[in-house]
Amino acid sequence: MERMVNQFIAVVEDEADIVELVSLHLKKSGFRVKGFQDGDIFFKSLNKQIPDLIILDLMLPDTDGLDICKYLKRKDEFSSIPIIMLTAKDGEMDKVLGLELGADDYVTKPFSPKELVARVKAVLRRKSEQTEESRIIQIGKLITMDLEKYEVAVEGKKIELTSTEFRILQLLASRKGRVFTRDNILDYLWGNEKAVVDRTVDVHIKHLREKLGSAKTLIKNIRGIGYKLEE
């Protein structure tokens, strides 16, 4: 049985039938699930229990799902919660905007409940996969990665990365100087469960660079190929 079983999933979605459908399939996979049909009720629930993952509809009656995502990613206590956006908006720019705001995945309606559950498991797996031994990776003189605590510091100051951003940095740091193609990075992040476009990598790299601040120049873009990390 997977170690993610019994984790708590919050489904923020105003359509009751979709909440019921998603909840049914997630519960069959061993998750605890609670649905929230508007943003205010969801925000109040965070005072009682922080979810392990959020499935977030973008078009809610009282607020924009993108605003909820933006708020959560700006708060230290919530920024590490993985978010899967669930929406009828299927345009590329909608997806890119969601990813730029920190979402870990994007599922469009109509959707397969089984695929959504697979996406949930994949995102949680990426977050939980850590080395069994305590290891510190030093990248030049600027970046320190603690793989056991899942923390990154730039010039001694801790920064908050999403699980996807952390894993991209970890991959690049595992072979400094090696160029990883976008397909290499996608395979590492999602494996056979990937259902995303190459531009997804560019969005996460852009977000990662912004958070790295003075150390962002260590990640080099090899035009037309991919990315590498140079000290």
Describe this structure in words.
- The chain has 231 residues and is α/β, with parallel strands linked by helices.
- The chain folds into two domains: 8-128, 3-Layer(aba) Sandwich (Rossmann fold); 136-229, Orthogonal Bundle (Arc Repressor Mutant, subunit A).
- Helices cover 39% and strands 21% of the residues.
- The chain is built from eight helices and twelve strands.
- It has helices spanning 16-28, 39-45, 65-74, 92-100, 113-128, 163-174, 182-190, 199-212; strands spanning 8-12, 32-36, 53-57, 83-87, 105-108, 136-139, 143-146, 151-154, 157-159, 180-181, 219-222, 226-229.
- The strands form three sheets. The chain has a five-stranded parallel β-sheet with strand order 2-1-3-4-5, sandwiched between helices. It has a four-stranded antiparallel β-sheet with strand order 6-7-8-9, covered by helices on one side.
Write the layout of secondary structure elements.
Elements: E1 8-12, H1 16-28, E2 32-36, H2 39-45, E3 53-57, H3 65-74, E4 83-87, H4 92-100, E5 105-108, H5 113-128, E6 136-139, E7 143-146, E8 151-154, E9 157-159, H6 163-174, E10 180-181, H7 182-190, H8 199-212, E11 219-222, E12 226-229
Parallel strand pairs: 1-2, 1-3, 3-4, 4-5
Antiparallel strand pairs: 6-7, 7-8, 8-9, 10-12, 11-12
How many helical elements? 8
Percent of sequence in beta strands: 15-25%
Task: State the separation between the terminal residues, measured CA to CA.
Answer: 40 Å
Main β-sheet, in a few words? 5 strands, parallel
